[in-house]
Amino acid sequence: MKILITGSNGLLGQKLVYKLRNNAAVTCIATARGENRLAKQEGYVFESLDITNKENVNNVFSKHLPDVIVNTAAMTNVDACETEKDACWAMNVTSVNHQVKALENLKIKHSNYNPHFIHLSTDFIFDGTHGPLDENETPNPLSYYAESKLAAEKIVQASLLDWAIARTVLVFGIVDNMSRSNIVLWVKSNLEQGKIINVVDDQFRTPTLAEDLADGCILIAQKRAKGIYNISGKDFYSILELANVVADYYQLDKSLIKPSKSADIKQPAKRPPITGFIIEKAKKELGYNPHSFTEGIKILEEQIKEMGK
User: Which of 56, 125, 201, 239 has the most Cβ atoms closer than 10 angstroms to its Cβ?
Assistant: First the structure.
């Protein structure tokens, strides 16, 4: 099975490459804009790919004819999407259209070619009036980022391809170069430095370990599952509760965590207050079984120690 991953330098892309690279049954094709930034560069093929460039997409897809495409590449900085709308649309919508059209054309050209397109989406397509949510919930985006992700879902659903959409929530994990922070590392580093942090108590999520999300995508690929799947963590927390769990895990001073309200934080883009996912469909149909949030922190901590060696 040939599996092509877009956004292989990103958090989820990297986890997918590392899980697939030594799998004898899989040829893994990692693609990202620019150069390969992964520390381990063997066991897979790397192609530089700008998914916003139609010709580039056509060339790479026709060269490899992947059986499965996992589209993890996206502009995910919600506030940047609000202020840089053209870049957001190009990265999150136009690029999906390029990929879908390229695969549809290849399907017509090669009669026995039937690619499976797996697209990553987000809880942010919902308005956050209630949660946790299942796959049948009606989207109502609050931000430009959310609008772009919903528009991409519609392109995928209207395509002539076998498709799956993996929706996820608040992904945390670490990449090779530790260039990015996440909710766990942010709470940990601030509390270790004795800094007071303001954490919202009116936003609720089911935080997702990047490794679990990668496993969910691989299960979809292996089972050639079609349709929408919620792939997230299983623990439903307010962001404040989540910060307290991190503090407890590392035995840090919880008195430094101050509850605040979303309205007090000045951010360009609106966030849905309550999301979180019900993951029964993924459990039943895919055999998806994510770690608890605390187990996720432990895995993260082990990786950080490994990198420090």
Answer: 125
